[in-house]
């Protein structure tokens, strides 16, 4: 991890099938043109974004691209998970085709995880692959979805069921962009941050210290994700650690008809896993108390309104299931989480 002065706080290089930098700092949206210039020739750049982010940040990014002599085009779709669908995907690739984009041109995903996932998928498939850059503007997208090359759209049968692994050319995380996030969207990111705090001792200690800057939290989370992606880019093994808390969380979100936000559900899911890990004798009471209080600190005090039976029933359509088994991430200490295969019929008993 290289440290730099000025407005770049840190640069983390991810070495996967594509080698790229994740640049974290402040004031970076106005420097996007400069930061990507060495990755592309004088070409056309498409900015794909949603209407909320467009109103806030597109002009700044476009100005920086034009200052570097790049031609720009912009496609805007309505914000929200509903837009992460086949129709928007089709509209994006039609837009690229109608504007005669070629493989020497490039695409920028400017927005949260929805924009990042669908733009990444469009980039992976348009002309069998066009260069793209992630410019994440939510905390969740900065610490998780923009890094690692998972791209996807939702279909009526389920979330993220169609996608590709396709790494970006660079990721630019402007911490200043987080200033305009609504509280509940910020907390969704904190749900993922609390997952990282259980997975990694350094992140746990940072969060425990009370006195830290957001750029430090983003840097440590991205660096943890870098390690996981470098060791298991295609999600065949330990990348599943990133699903910590997510199996119960998916059940909770579904049962609440998505009125409980993802970050809150992950917080509740983590607490369920921590309790089960205590019951199984994997962690002591004091480790349990420490980890639970860190999760509460990050996502707040929220009682889960559903029973374990209900949650398990609704988690079982989960992608983590394979035949009669489900892969569950369990906790064995601060920074010591393991993937365990549990028989589906034993899941309720395990988590109860
Ligand atoms: P999102 O993209 O829907 O953004 C949430 C809301 O915040 C939207 O309304 C958006 O317009 C608004 N917004 C974005 N940036 C803003 C800003 N700076 N100021 C004000 N408003 C802003 O949601 P998200 O939480 O960023 O991402 C969720 C998505 O990420 C889901 O689809 C999930 O499946 C996906 N995801 C993907 C991965 C991956 O590895 N690819 C990992 C985790 C989650
Ligand atoms: N957010 C899960 C992953 O990238 O694998």
Question: Would you mind describing this structure in some detail?
Answer:
Strand 8 (150-155) and strand 9 form a beta hairpin. The chain has helices at 32-36, 51-67, 86-98, 113-125, 139-145, 183-199, 201-208, 214-231, 246-255, 262-279, 285-299, 308-315, 347-351, and strands at 2-3, 8-15, 19-25, 44-50, 71-77, 106-111, 131-136, 150-155, 158-165, 170-174, 321-322, 325-333, 336-343. The chain is an alpha/beta fold. The chain is globular. Strands 1-2-3-10 form a 4-stranded mixed beta sheet. Helix 7 (201-208) packs antiparallel against helix 8 (214-231) and helix 10 (262-279) packs antiparallel against helix 11. It has 13 helices and 13 strands. The structure holds nicotinamide-adenine-dinucleotide and glycine.
């Amino acid at each position: 991890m290289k440290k730099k002065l000025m407005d770049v706080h840190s640069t983390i290089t991810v070495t996967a099938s594509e080698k790229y930098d994740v640049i974290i700092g402040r004031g970076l949206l106005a420097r996007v043109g400069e930061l990507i210039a060495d990755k592309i020739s004088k070409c056309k750049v498409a900015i794909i974004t949603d209407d909320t982010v467009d109103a806030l940040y597109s002009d700044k990014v476009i100005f920086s691209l034009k200052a570097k002599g790049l031609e720009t085009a912009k496609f805007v779709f309505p914000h929200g998970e509903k837009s992460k669908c086949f129709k928007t995907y089709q509209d994006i690739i039609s837009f690229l085709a109608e504007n005669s984009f070629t493989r020497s041109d490039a695409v920028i995903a400017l927005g949260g995880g929805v924009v990042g996932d669908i733009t990444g998928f469009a980039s992976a498939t348009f002309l069998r692959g066009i260069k793209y850059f992630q410019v994440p503007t939510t905390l969740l997208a900065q610490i998780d979805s923009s890094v690692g090359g998972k791209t996807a759209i939702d279909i009526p049968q389920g979330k993220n069921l169609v996608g590709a692994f396709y790494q970006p050319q660079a990721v630019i995380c402007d911490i200043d962009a987080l200033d305009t996030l609504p509280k509940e969207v910020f907390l969704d990111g904190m749900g993922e941050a609390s997952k990282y705090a259980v997975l990694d001792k350094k992140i746990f200690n940072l969060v425990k210290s009370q006195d830290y800057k957001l750029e430090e939290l983003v840097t440590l989370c991205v660096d943890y994700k870098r390690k996981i992606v470098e060791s298991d880019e295609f999600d065949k093994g330990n990348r599943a650690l990133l699903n910590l808390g997510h199996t119960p969380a998916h059940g909770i979100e579904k049962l609440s008809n998505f009125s409980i936000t993802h970050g809150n559900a992950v917080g509740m899911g983590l607490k369920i896993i921590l309790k089960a890990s205590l019951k199984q004798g994997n962690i002591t009471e004091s480790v349990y108390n420490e980890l639970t209080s860190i999760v509460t600190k990050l996502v707040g005090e929220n009682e889960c309104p559903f029973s374990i039976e209900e949650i398990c029933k609704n988690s079982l359509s989960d992608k983590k299931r394979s035949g009669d088994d489900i892969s569950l991430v369990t906790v064995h200490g601060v920074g010591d989480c393991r993937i365990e295969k549990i028989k589906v019929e034993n899941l309720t008993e395990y988590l109860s």
